[in-house]
Design a protein that fits this description.
With about 210 residues, this protein is α+β, with helices and mostly antiparallel strands. It contains nine helices and four strands, in the order βαβαββααααααα. About 55% of the residues lie in helices and about 5% in strands. The longest helix is centred in the middle third of the chain and has 22 residues.
């Protein structure tokens, strides 16, 4: 039995969980694993990060690596297109979103979500890099109706969990939504959010956030 380890407010954990649900996999969830550098945790996930999965007595870390494994091990409900170039396009979109958008915006999270101020220099650098990353994403995103085209892919699992965070972080840090230039984003997120897997994960995220505030 596959086990997915992490916690419900982690966007990367939620990305993997959506993919597993969309692929119709049977798996357990351990939502109590939080990042730490303790030795016993590093033995399970060497960077001390989540998510990771347990499979066949072994652990596998990094969300995109996990997704690649799932596609290879469980190809019955593919989340990549069959054409090699189109598969690469999906990976390209994920890279733009994660490396050049979400991880850039993440530098703001300490301030906007936890009240830890960042310098003006950091905010200026983030703004510059976000503009570049979103320009690249906009050049490749199709929203037809899914982000990579006609079929649901891993890129949608990523977009659904990352783009709302970028919207919220930029609104709070700069007073404007950096995704406003893409009016397709809001109806797209609403559309995919109505799918059972996406809705279930989103509701669990909201419940976990509410529990943290008590």
């Amino acid at each position: 039995m596959l086990k997915l380890c992490g916690f419900h407010i982690s966007n990367y954990f939620n990305k993997v969980r959506i993919a597993m649900l969309e692929k119709g996999l049977e798996f357990e969830v351990d939502p109590t694993c939080a990042p730490t550098q303790k030795e016993e945790f590093l033995a399970r996930t060497p960077m001390g990060k989540v998510p990771f999965i347990e499979v066949g007595g072994a652990e596998l870390a990094e969300s995109q690596v996990i997704c690649e494994y799932l596609e290879d091990a469980y190809p019955q409900r593919p989340l990549y297109p069959p054409d090699p170039l189109e598969r690469a396009r999906v990976r390209e979109l994920i890279t733009f979103m994660e490396l050049h958008v979400e991880l850039v915006a993440r530098k703001l999270y300490g301030q906007v979500f936890f009240g830890r101020p960042v310098s003006d220099e950091v905010k200026q650098s983030v703004e510059k890099d976000l503009i570049k990353g979103l320009r690249a994403f906009r050049a490749r995103a199709k929203f037809d109706p899914y982000v990579a085209g006609a079929e649901l892919t891993f890129a949608d699992c990523a977009a659904f969990v990352h783009l709302p965070l970028v919207t919220l972080a930029t609104k709070l840090a700069y007073g404007k939504d950096f995704l406003e230039a893409m009016p397709q984003v809001k109806p797209y997120l609403k559309m995919v959010g109505e799918r059972p897997a996406f809705s279930r994960v989103n509701e669990d995220r909201k419940a976990a956030q509410a529990a943290m505030k008590k």
